[in-house]
Amino acid sequence: MFQNDAFRALDRQECLRLLAKVPVGRVVYTRQALPAVLPVNFSLDADASVLVCTSPGSDLVRAIDGVVIAFEADEFDAATRSGWSVVVTGRATEVTDPAEHERLLQSGPSSWMPLHDAVFVRIESEMVTGRELRGTPGTR
Q1: How far is CA 86 from CA 19, 21, 131, in A?
Q2: Average pLDDT, integer, range 35-53
Q3: Rounded to whole angstroms, how far apart are CA atoms 54 and 115?
Q4: Nearest to 84 by CA among 29, 38, 129
Q5: In which domain of life is the source organism classified (predicted)?
Q6: SS3 annotation, the chain
Q7: Which residues fall within 8 angstroms of residue 26, CB to CB, at 6 or more apart?
Q8: Taking the chain, what is the end-to-end CA distance rounded to the nearest angstrom?
Q9: Residue 59 contacts by C-beta under 8 Å, 6 or more apart in sequence?
């Protein structure tokens, strides 16, 4: 197998630490039997699940509630050819418990879009994988 010191797989704790540093990621799901990707702002909950805040009429909520999806976030620097990418895979569910919803209104993510009513979606971190690319000189 090819060994490359510029590439490194990340363990779960490293992945979660990196996820907590960035405000935007991508929900990867199926829409009308086709792959779909939607950038969203998010936060991590204490149990390491990904939390997204959206509107009650959101097509996203209907498409992912109860479904296993992927969530990806990353940070890259093109000048140094370095960065990282983390993927969380797990079941997405709308938060319906009133006490949990109230807690998330206080401490969870807030949508970057103006909302009349907030709906929270929790993506369980059943599988967390990541990789880091350390800068390598390149030729053009």
Answers
A1: 7, 12, 7
A2: 95
A3: 7
A4: 129
A5: Bacteria
A6: CCCCCCEEEECHHHHHHHHCCCCEEEEEEEECCEEEEEEEECEECCCCCEEEEECCCCHHHHHHCCEEEEEEEEEEECCCCEEEEEEEEEEEEECCCHHHHHHHHHHCCCCCCCCCCCEEEEECCCEEEEEEECCCCCCC
A7: 37, 38, 39, 40, 71, 72, 73
A8: 27
A9: 31
Residue type (1 letter), 108: G
pLDDT digits (tens, 9 = 90+) for 91-132: 999 999 999 999 998 888 887 777 778 899 999 999 999 999
**Residue 64, both tokens:** 């992912």
Domains in the chain, start-ordered, CATH in brackets?
A: 7-133 (2.30.110.10)
Q: What's the full length of the chain, in residues?
A: 140
Write the pLDDT tens digit of every residue in 60-85. 898 999 999 999 999 999 999 999 99
Between 4 and 95, name the one with better pLDDT: 95
Task: Summarize the confidence of residues 35-47 as an average pLDDT.
Answer: 95
CB 72 within 8 A of CB 103: no
